Amino acid sequence: MHTPMASVIQVDPVPANGDIYEIVAGQGKFAYTKALLDRIAAAAGISWLPEVCGRADAGTDPEVVRFRMGAKRKELDGQWRVVVREYEFDLRARQKELEDTVPKRKWITDIADVAKRQKAITETIDKDMVQLRKHKVGRAESGAANRVVRVFLGIKSGYTKEQVIKPVVVPKLTFTPDYSDPEIRRFMLAEATGTISELYG
Length: 201
Fold this sequence. Notes:
Blueprint: E1 2-9, E2 20-22, E3 30-32, H1 34-44, E4 47-48, E5 54-55, E6 64-74, E7 80-90, H2 91-101, H3 106-109, H4 114-134, H5 136-153, H6 161-164, E8 168-175, H7 182-193, H8 196-200
Antiparallel strand pairs: 1-8, 2-3, 4-6, 5-6, 6-7
């Protein structure tokens, strides 16, 4: 009672439009954004498992958030597959990363005055860290969810610009019951009217 089908997800090639982003500026490696991965997950029939999803740490360290996400998907062989992944968002590591990368940004290096350049670096890092702290839980949740989707569909974490803008073809099994079968019609009607538990327990 299932039919294999494929959906084609178009990818907007302009990073500013929210489908792709450059992982590190100037290095030519791109990845799918959370918004695009969500569309891919929906097309693939990935269902999140609320009982698995949530914080995976005790919350005792304000600089670290670890989040767990789990989902299931019916594979093309008809078997259910469950994937659970965690993602750790470490603010200390993010700050160190900013301290390494911000001074190399072109608009920073273009500042000739040393004192003004150092002031701009400090202000930029402080501003970025405020945003990271504000959204640390959401970033950890998104990171874990993105890992789950990538594992299900074999999506890499980075592509060239030519690769990343190609349409994504997503296969899945679609439930296509035989509606001429009276028992199937009865089951579907019971599900639609909310009486399925009365009929089947």
